[in-house]
């Protein structure tokens, strides 16, 4: 029963055998391609994981530096520097845009920052703490760059993780379900076709034996009829009974002599 549950319910014919073989070839080719895709995605996944670890390690130092720079600005320029900066900023100079990168058929989202226009708040903190404001701005720009890179890596990480799980499920399904089922079906069809061939061969031998026996029976009947005819002629020529003619013919056949009329 387990063997029957692991094969398809098909009619064992030569045509179906060809169809199953073609499906097995397609499944084998698809399994190989998906396996290569899974390996490529796994390599990319590990590379992204290494980048995430290194980026997170550097992010700690960068965020600490930027926070310390903000503290220096507040110490030098005072607590009201926040309102001064907000008044001088009209539009964001750093923006983020997204694009897609194709890795083995999987589209990974990528985020990158870019500068839109020129910075117009260079006079911020000119009266007091201007240099510290510019240093703080540079520190936070670097922090934004790291955060954008980390967001891109983590988004790609999650996308790749889901793609690898899906691909591995398909690989396992092809390897453990589809291919064995097709192979068992092909084995079943071959066995049935061989059995049909043996039955046909046995049937042909039976028919041939029957025809041979029929020919032998016909030859024996013809020989017996010829002997009856010959015995009747001998009995008429010799003037003896038919039984005596049979006996005479039998004796002549044993002595290998011819009957002379």
Automatic annotation (TrEMBL):
Classification via Pfam families: ATP-synt_D
- Assigned keywords, A-Z: Ion transport, Transport
Please name the GO terms that the record assigns under molecular function.
Answer: proton-transporting ATPase activity, rotational mechanism
- Ranges in a coiled coil: none
InterPro entries, alphabetized? V_ATPase_D
Residue ranges spanning the membrane: these are none
Similarity comment: family membership: Belongs to the V-ATPase D subunit family.
Listed PANTHER family: V-TYPE ATP SYNTHASE SUBUNIT D
Protein name (Swiss-Prot/TrEMBL): V-type proton ATPase subunit D-like
**Species, as recorded:** Juglans regia
